[in-house]
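Many introductory courses stop at the sequence. We go one step further.
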Amino acid sequence: MAKYRGPVCKLCRREGEKLFLKGARCYTPKCAIDRRAYPPGMHGKSAQFRRKRESDYARQLRAKQKARRVYGVLERQFRRYHATALKRRGLTGLTMLQILESRLDNIVYRLGYADSRPKARMLVTHGHFMVNGSRTDIPSMTVAIGDVVSVRPSSRKRTYFKELPDFAEDRNVPNWLSRDLRELAGTVVRMPERSEIDANLGEQLIVEYYSR
């Protein structure tokens, strides 16, 4: 399975903002954005002082790249999500974001069972989670309304999951999910509204990018 293997902090620096790809580290002074708030590369530091008007295409591309990096999706899969959203009723941009939010790795992250989406993806890939009682190791699996995501009984013996309730208790859970810390489970109550998804994602620009 293809995936990005480079330094994730460079992705944040390229977008010029924190994408919270390294979990707790992003909240410390070690965060790359706090230390080097300019694009990566040999001309990155000088680029921040050059004033240049962005074209419409550049803004659309940056919006698409940012969303891809936030959710950890490669180009081919991201394009498929857009094609799926295009076939459904409603606003294409919002529908696409709802599909991304419905990914299993994102659900695990939103429930507070991981401090970043990459870590949630790793936990799912290692088979620590079940959906409706069935073990799965597919991070991109789409979770539907009413589905229950839970930690496998055998995984609860591990130190990480024993300490998880204390860690997760401090994490806010969006209203479209319900969480049971005692059972280390969560249920999708409904699809998220636009106000419950990251506000800095420009879904309309993404739709315009693929509509060229």
